[in-house]
Every structure is written in C-alpha cells, then in structure tokens.
Specification:
Creatine Amidinohydrolase, Chain A, domain 1; six-stranded mixed beta sheet; Pept_M24 (chains A, B); Creatinase_N (chains A, B); alpha+beta; 2 domains; 17 strands; Creatine Amidinohydrolase; homodimer; 409 residues; aminopeptidase activity (chains A, B)
C-alpha cells in the first residue's frame, strides 16, 4: 500500500532534545514518567499527532502508543511506535515495556497534561495504570508549558512563515474592504486568502471553551460589545451560539475597524492586529490609537531578557493612567481583560503572559504577542498587536505587516 | 452603555423544558445537582455561552454563575445570572444560594460533564465545592448526551437551515471545480461560500483531540491515506501538524473527489458527503460508489423508531460482505472506522452512533448522519452521506443537496 507523501516533519534531533529536556525536569521533580495525551503535546514531543499516548520515562526511551493510524505515526516520528491495542490492557503493556519502572516497590508518580485531559479519560487512564502498579497520575502541565515557552530557531522559522501568510493575506484582502461590506463578508475574504496560503483552518487554543479560527474583524459599536472570549475585544458575533468575533454588522465610514487576525501554518500560529478606518477616526479614538502605539513601543523597549512579565503589564497600566485611558484598556468596565500580551507557538495562548502576578522573567527564545487595545462602548475598539521574539539583544519583531493605522479613502 | 443587538436566542420555554428533563433524570439517578461547564452544554441548558458554570439543582431554580460577560449573559438567558466572583469562594456561594442542598447531612452528589471537563479544572471545582459540603462530583455526561439526542422542532429548523447553507455553498463552489485546482484551493472556495452564508467558522466536536472546521475535500490517492480522525476517511492533510482533511494535492481527471463537508449555523451542524468526478470513475470505484447508495437506501428503510442502532451497522456490514467490499468499508485494513453513522446537533459527534455494541433504539427526534464510504489505497475514497430525522413515519431526509454521483465534464 502506498502511503504517499507522509514524511517526518519536526527534525529528529529536535524531538530528541525536547524529550531529554523533559526527562531532566522529571528527574528534578521526582517524577517517574510523563504520559502525553493532547494532540499538540504529542506533536511537540514526537513530531506526530496521531491518536494515542506518548509515554516518556524519566530515563530510557519513549514509546508512542498509537490507536490510529499506526502506519502513519511510524512515518511521522522517529520515536518508537507501538500499537495501543485494547485500552484496558494499556497498564499491563506499559508494565511489560518498562519493568524497571513498574517493578518499583514505592508508588509510581506519572505526570500528564491534566490542564487539557478530560476527567473521564483521566479516570480510565488512572484505572488501567493502577491495575499494573501502585501509581498516581499527577498534573505535569506546567512542565510542558514552561518547556514549550522557549522556541528553537526551527520554530521561529515556522512562526515567521505564518507571519508572512498573515501579512500577504491582509494585503490582498484590503483591496476589497469598502463601505457597506459586512464584517462577516470581509472576514470570509481574509480567511480565503489565509487558507489558500496554507492556514490549517483553525488556531489551536489550550484554554477550555475557547475557540478561534482566524481571529476577528470587528468594527464600530459591534466591536465594543463585551464577550466571554479571554481577550481585550470580543465582538458581537453571529448570535448566542457564536457570541464573539465577526457579526453581520455593516462596515461604515469613520468607524474603527479592528483587524485582529492570525493563522496556523505547519502547526505554528501568528497573531497580529491592525486598526483601519475608511475616512477618519473620531478624535477620542485617534488619541487612544496613538496611545496604543506608544504602549507597544514602550513594551518593545522593555522586552529584554531578565525583565519580569508583570512589570510590562504594570508599565502599560501606568501609561494608560497618565493618558487618562485606564477605564478603556483591554475592554471596558467589568469586562476588562487583565493582560497586555501572551506567548504564541503551537497554541495561541502559550506562556508567558504579560499580566499581574506573572513574575516569570523574559528569556531568549520566548515569543510574545503584545496587544494594547482600547474599548469605547458605542464607538468601537482601536489598538495594535505585534509578535516578538526575545533575543539577547532585546525584542525582534516577527510581524511583517507594516505598523500604523490603515487609512483608506 | 449600549449593548446592541444582543437578544435571547433559544426560546425561554425550550430552556425551561430542558432543565426540567434534566431534573427528572437527576431525581431518578439520586443526583442532587448538575454543574454544567462546557460551552455547548451551557448553551443547551441556558441559551448562553458566556464563560461560567450553570448550576441546576434536582429541584428548584438554576443559576448561571458567570465570569464574563455577566451583562451579556443576562441578555441571552432567562435563567438567573449571578457573578461568579473569586473562584475559590464558589463553593461557599453555592452553599449560600442552595442551603437546602448544602445543608444535607449525607454527602452531596453533584454531576458534571466530565467527558469534556479538563482534569485540572475538575480538581479545582472539587476543592471549592468540597470546602462548602461533603461532596462528590460524579460523571453525568451520559445524561446530557441522552437528553441532547432528541431534537425539538426548533432544533430541526436550525439543522435544516444549516443543510440549506451547505447545499447552496456546494452548488456555488462546483462552478470553479476544475482539473488542476488543488484540494486546498477548492476547499478555500467552499469555505468562503459557507462563511458568507453564516457558518461560524468551525463545527464543534466533543471528542478529545478531534478537530473539524468544515470537513474535507479529498481526491484520488490522497483521500485514501489513513489518519487519526475518527471517521471513515482522513486525507493527507497539510503536514504532520495538520494530518487530515485537504492537502495540496492536485485534483485530476477520472479520480474520485470526496466532498465531505458541513457547517455550523446558529449553533447547529449539518454533515453531508457527495462524490464527484471530472470524467469517469474507474470501474472498481463506480461499483463501490453504487454500493454506498444501496447501503444508504437500506439504512433509510431501516431507520424507524424502535430499530436498534447496532442492527443498522450489522446490516451495512452484511451488505458489504455480499458486495465483496468488506475490506474497503469505512477505511482500509487496520485503519477502518467501526460505524455507519452518528448523531448530529450542536456537535458533530453526538449520540446515537450506528455501531456495534450501541444497542440503543432509534426514537423520533433523533438526527443522524449516515455515511457509507469505501476506501481504496492508491485510488481514493467514494461514498455518500445524508442526514436524517427519525419520525414516527420513518426517516426524513434533512440534506437538501440532490443525491447521486456528481459527474463533471
């Protein structure tokens, strides 16, 4: 049988290096093994996203137990692939393959990505593993999130490729932006441009109940409607069953058009925001837009290795206070989001977060989307968002689309 | 502050009826309350998808505890809305609001949708609820899945609206299907047509790690590549980080083009498959395509109230055996999917499932997508898929696009 065109994607050396790093964390934390369950985590640590469980012992070789498709997994990863077989025997299989772990007298501590693993499946895993050894599955999601924060040059290349796709797609779609088009219709055009350039159709998000496919185009008053979405702007959406992002609102002259879009190309996401206007922004909004540029410039300056994430958020709050815009920053009133930026990579909501209490220090290799925005109920949302790589020399912008308000006739 | 255009969507009477039905199940099962956590479940039982927890006691009024946006939730649901406040005090808040439950001597049994709730969040909920009462959170996901199986006339109307969107979009996109276009490019066009007609951008799927935005257009050998996706066909995809659905393969003459697409409009999904060919199918594939039409006709006949779901799958297997197509049914070899059809509604993978061991009986109000398909490695996939409502008079087809192989010059 021909299995055409399926090849390993993530370099084998990179996969090995990631596994070794995770093993070092496990050894330090006194964890015996890690069981990866989520598609993105599987891809990160094996290079394959087939359906199964990746078992990484704290010492020794990993095994990817695959339900489907075994033959495809073997082509995608250099990690050892085994058939998962009947789920209820998974514990026994592991005990046979890893006798030096499952033969331990004391109880086994196995970490898993419990921030995303559904409880029902967790219980089933606990049961089958528990049938083979005294064993506790503990939450290892912070280990994963911390490792994934630091991007390799190969990953930066992928993020840059996604940045190029967004830039080209927005440039192409701007040609059809006109008074009278609906947010939905123009977004459909942006999505078409993104898709033909390789966007996989959605941007993966780790947070429970959060959904994003390409972001949002929200204009005028519809942009300023509060929403459940964990971001500074939500949008009116298409009804209670899709209560965020684009609506059927018509784009009008002299109203801000917030274009907060991204894509996922070959696994990696990019996130950028530009504000456009057909005509001229009302003075209040122009002033707020200018403030967003000031804030992002300030953040660019501050993003050096060793800077605490929370300090960047504090600086932004101080900037808003002095510009008399505190009430409008990242949403309005009770619906303000409490951050300035977030990590991006395989998912759109990675670590670190530029937020209060997030005291982690910036390190070379981190990639962050910084998105100062201001919400004015009844008027709209304005702001800017760029993505940056932290380097020894400071922040390097990965976003390719040019900065500045997009003024259209 | 103007919160424009936000209105209740699900009729208030329908929400009340659903809550009363869930309460009846709780009373029968000896459960004290249900805590809904997932966005789709929240929408079903309240009409709102804002971020929070819906608490439904086995007797008495429900409360939707909302983190964000409280003001939007109040406009979307007639259920009582309260601010969630600090999460760690959620247990105490519940104890204050529901003293007749939390004052019980014996331990409280609170059900939740544990098939989707992440383990980490489950542990936090267990902790805050446990601080207020002796309390166990049990898995109530089957109650939800069973209630949601039976659609109301209002829901059928929404599914029909989605069926109309898919039918119109495919009709429009067929005008640009030509030799030499890539799967990706043609899919981008279908998605554009779906989107401008109100598709929310993704189809929700309950299964862990499963992703679907609009389905797949897969052609020739690229269609027959096995994948992790829990369906009869996977597709080559766009690389290891998106290993299913469309690829950059070029659509050629005399090869099958499997168009398995759907959309989500106002919350409800539809799922349909047609096979197209530019020219003529090879004889083996034409024969298999004809068999898929025979199988779906047989299923249509058998879909009457009282028929066991598993019998429909058995009948399809028998049909395949007599047509000598068993090895090709719903995938090939080790990668065969083991079902004939699945429920649809707010999610694409609802109950019931037409599969072995699924002995539930069909009932009026169920909506099923039936999708007999045949996979030929190196050649492609052919088949058909329609969605049906079970009525007292038998199966009523909801799919609007006309049946039959799409023959293009």
């Amino acid at each position: 049988m021909a299995v055409m065109d399926i090849v390993a994607d993530v370099p084998e050396a990179l996969v090995s290096e990631r596994i070794i790093r995770l093993q070092a964390v496990m050894q330090k934390e006194g964890v015996d093994a890690f069981l990866l369950t989520q598609n993105v985590d599987l891809y990160y640590f094996s290079g394959s996203m087939q359906n199964g469980y990746l078992f990484i012992p704290s010492t020794g070789d990993a095994t990817f137990y695959v339900r489907r498709s075994v033959q495809r997994a073997k082509l995608e990863t250099a990690v050892k692939v085994a058939e998962l077989g009947a789920f209820r025997f998974f514990g026994e299989t592991l005990a046979q393959h890893y006798p030096y772990l499952f033969g331990k007298e004391s109880g086994l501590r196995i970490a898993a990505d419990l921030d995303v693993l559904p409880t029902q499946l967790y219980a089933k895993l606990q049961e089958t593993l528990g049938s083979a050894a005294s064993c506790t599955i503990i939450d290892g999601s912070t280990y994963i999130r911390k490792l994934r924060m630091i991007k390799s040059p190969w990953e930066i290349g992928r993020i840059e490729a996604a940045a190029k796709v967004v830039s080209e797609s927005l440039t192409a779609a701007l040609h059809v932006l006109r008074e009278g088009i609906s947010e939905l219709e123009w977004m459909a055009r942006i999505e078409y441009e993104l898709r033909i350039r390789g966007h996989i159709g959605l941007m993966r998000m780790r947070g429970f109940n959060q959904e994003i496919t390409t972001g949002m185009v929200i204009s005028g008053p519809a942009a300023a409607v509060p929403s459940y979405f964990d971001g500074p702007a939500g949008g009116l959406g298409l009804g209670a069953a899709s209560p965020q992002s684009v609506s059927r609102s018509i784009i009008k002259r002299n109203e801000p058009i917030l274009i907060d879009i991204g894509c996922c190309v070959d696994g990696y996401v990019i996130d950028q925001t530009r504000t456009a206007v057909l005509g001229k922004l009302p003075e209040t909004l122009q002033r707020a837009y200018d403030a967003s540029e000031t804030l992002i410039a300030k953040a660019e300056e501050m993003m050096v290795p060793g800077a605490p994430c929370s300090k960047l958020y504090e600086a932004a709050l101080a900037g808003c206070a002095s510009a008399n815009l505190s009430d409008h920053f990242m949403g309005f009133g009770a619906d303000q989001a409490k951050f300035l930026g977030h990590g991006i990579g395989l998912e759109i909501d990675e670590w670190p977060v530029l937020a209060k209490g997030f005291d982690m220090l910036l390190e070379p290799g981190m990639v962050l989307a910084v998105e100062p925005k201001f919400t004015f109920p009844g008027l709209g949302v304005v702001g800017i968002e760029n993505s940056y790589l932290i380097t020894d020399q400071g922040a390097r912008k990965l976003t390719q689309f040019k900065d500045g308000l997009i003024l259209l006739p």
